[in-house]
Amino acid sequence: MKKKNAILILIIFANVILGQRIKDITYFKGINSEQLIGYGLVVGLSGTGDSYRSTFTVQSVTSMLKRFGITVPDANLRTRNVAAVMVTAKVNNLAKQGSEFDVSVSSMGDAKSLMGGTLLMTPLSRSDGNVFAMCQGAISIGGYDINTSSGGRVAKNHALSGRIPNGGVLEKPILEEGFVSTELSVVLKDPDFTTSKTIADSINAVFGSTIASAVDAAEVSLSIPAGENNITDFLSRIELINVQKDVIARVVLNERTGTVVSGTNVRISPVSISHGSLNITIKSFPLISQPSPFSQGNTVLFNNQVPDVKEKENETSTYTIDGATNAQEVAAALNSLKVSPRDIIAIFQALKEAGALTAELVIM
């Protein structure tokens, strides 16, 4: 099998000794982000806007001009300097009136580029149709799309979407009554029964009483301790508590880049796989730790695993794992041969199908 010059990047996630802060893996129930959306017009484009075929752009420009007391027949409008766009944003529901936030702008017509454009004042509403914010400003696209006079084209990145930093302004608070703290609970971003119980136990240990209880894999209910008058201080103390998050055994593979991301808890059981000309053997060698004479120590037996990788031309060889190992060792062995990302994914898929890979396999 012909070797391919593929770069394999192996990333191994290990649990940090100090764990993660509760605020990094959870959020308080009732405190989250609201999605806002709006429809608007971008002007000031240098002939790269929507054509007359985008009838909604023509209608939008006509309606806008009427609000300013100007009447222009649709047939006389030329909209190459204008583009119809959808505007989206995400804002915390505790944000107060006047808070600024970033907005994303995306073309919905046949415009060629939004470079140099300015979004006109656009209302932003929630899914229920209530308007909560307005946005306006110059668009930053981080790229360009230029057509030359000779018919050539020079482009970089994506020129049909961009952002307006701090372009949105909240007109009224999303939670008019503020945060209601009658029922407190933290919600896990990645539901897990073990982590949920760990969070409850950690909170109870810090406060010295049973104020937290794991409801299910996604929620931990909280009770305000007696004498706790400052709810902000109470929630802040909970946010800073460190917990050990339980990580699901998972291997993530990216065929385009050859990236392999694996947790240290991913194990591979004994298995044998034939794959092209690869011959990979991972064996377990028993090692004995013998105590010194006349000491009170015990003899300890443990396995030392050493991967051995060889490639034979024009042969179909066998991939053998004689003892339990992990994805790190297998990927490192494959990387030493510069095996292509496609072959790496095929091998891990075979391990999964054979029941030897005790982890979730995610292919991007």
Summarize the structure.
By secondary structure, the protein is α+β, with helices and mostly antiparallel strands.
Architecture blueprint of SSEs:
Elements lengths: L8 E5 L6 E2 H4 E3 L4 E11 L11 H13 L15 E10 L7 E8 L10 E8 L5 E8 L5 E4 L5 E4 L4 E10 L13 E5 L4 H15 L4 E3 L4 E4 L8 H9 L2 E2 L6 E5 L4 E5 L3 E2 L2 E4 L3 E12 L10 E12 L6 E4 L3 E2 H10 L4 H13 L6 E4 L1
Parallel strand pairs: 1-17, 16-24, 20-22
Antiparallel strand pairs: 2-15, 3-12, 4-5, 4-7, 5-6, 6-11, 7-8, 8-11, 9-10, 12-14, 13-14, 16-17, 18-23, 19-22, 20-21
Written description of the protein model:
The chain has 364 residues and is of the alpha+beta class. Helices cover 18% and strands 38% of the residues. The chain contains 6 helices and 24 strands. The chain has helices at 22-25, 55-67, 193-207, 231-239, 327-336, 341-353, and strands spanning 9-13, 20-21, 26-28, 33-43, 83-92, 100-107, 118-125, 131-138, 144-147, 153-156, 161-170, 184-188, 212-214, 219-222, 242-243, 250-254, 259-263, 267-268, 271-274, 278-289, 300-311, 318-321, 325-326, 360-363. The longest helix has 15 residues, at 193-207. Residues 1-10 and 313-317 have low confidence and may be disordered.
